[in-house]
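PROTEIN FOLDING TASK:
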Amino acid sequence: MINNSAVLEVNLNNLIQNYKYFKKITKPSIVAATIKANAYGIGDKMVYESLYKNGCRDFFVATTNEGYSLRNKFNKGNIYILNGLENNSFAFFKKNKLTPIINSKNELKYVNKNNFSFGIHIDTGLNRLGINIEDLHKDIFNNKNLNIVISHLASADEFSNNFNFLQKKRFKNYIKLFENKKVTFSISNSMGALFNKNFHFNLVRPGISLYGGHYNNKFKTKIKPVIKLKASILQIKKIESGQYIGYNQTYKTKKNIWVAIIGIGYADGIPRSLSNKGFVFFKNIRYKIIGRVSMDSITINITKNKKKFNIGDYVDLINYERGIDDFAKQCCTISNEVLTSISNRV
């Protein structure tokens, strides 16, 4: 077995607890799982299997390729493709039991002529993917092949943002037009599901919060941490006073110090913005990153406790006490980007 210098640990029990938390607070709505981008970097097949065993039957991915890869392994469960047809034929979707979410008039004309299951994304104000309600032909409203209608909140992470309520109101008015009573309606992602029941409709589709992201301390005790990102010590060395560490001489020692070189860098998902700013944890003590974050390594100052460190020891960049939201804040980004930036080398 190869010992990797950088390791991502996944706590499946906490993942399942997060899923069950959403089931509890949105009951009786269906709780789907958004597992696009390899389940936000966690591992889509592992997540699919774990959640299916615990009652999840509906899964959302971005691309046809993501859905096809999952369907090759799992025959059961509903898989929805958020990017729509992506120029693939209806025969492909029908054969592989994949449901495209239609986003444009041209795609809508195509599916209306063919007999296969599809969904529709109505744009209620995000102005990204999605079709305007005015572009829906009246034949669509009672089409028997239509099984789901969705929209997407633009500011669900901002609980006091009135735009959320405007979008919900628009969506509620739009869905009254659909005569097919079997259609499922959905507007809420992770944060939207944490609003009141008026946002739940028939189905909610959490993503980042399944994997431990919460955006808000109000839910920190409710959403369980799912990942730990750790990396091993490759080398320990003494650096003399007046020496530079890392590229471009951004850090100069003012006295003799001891450093540890850690086997993780920006090729693994650690942004260069943490140069001379970020920190790691070892046995619950924080150690600062000094010098530039390199492609394959970072350097930390271990002078105060150098005797506690050994080559091969692992230090934590993200753990169950300091989760992905805390790490993301330090990187001036969001937890979604942190997770999906962790590379396959880890």
